[in-house]
Design brief:
125 residues, alpha+beta
């Protein structure tokens, strides 16, 4: 699969809440997730956080997906059942090497997430 196809499948697995399938597309070693207010160095930690948000996830809408070699860029709408948040617009930069996603860098309004979590954000430590 091409990097764009790998990321498209990962997003589809997250949308469908298929943890094992999503995890299989992430690098077991040399993985990093960076967001505006948190960082994970383990795919398990990132997915535990992501799937902890499942209760408020109403929908995940892929608006745009484009690729330039190993770099894949996604624009998403994360729709929630949590009224104070509503929808969160995401821009995500993925880097794919050797058929696995090694880096996920997400850009979104961090204040919304911080308010929802009451300032209790996970750390990479």
């Amino acid at each position: 699969m091409q990097p764009k196809d790998i990321v498209a499948q990962f997003i589809a697995d997250i949308h469908a809440q298929r943890l094992d399938e999503a995890k299989a597309l992430l690098a077991a070693e040399d993985f990093e997730y960076v967001g505006p207010n948190m960082r994970f160095l383990s795919r398990d930690d990132m997915l535990a956080y992501q799937f902890g948000m499942v209760a408020i996830q109403k929908d995940l809408v892929l608006r745009q997906l484009s690729a330039d070699g190993e770099h894949v860029f996604a624009i998403l709408d994360y729709r929630t059942h949590f009224e104070p948040i509503g929808d969160v617009r995401l821009a995500v930069w993925f880097r794919v090497r050797d058929g696995k996603i090694h880096t996920v860098e997400a850009f979104y309004n961090a204040a919304v997430v911080e308010n929802m979590l009451g300032g209790n954000l996970p750390s990479a430590d």
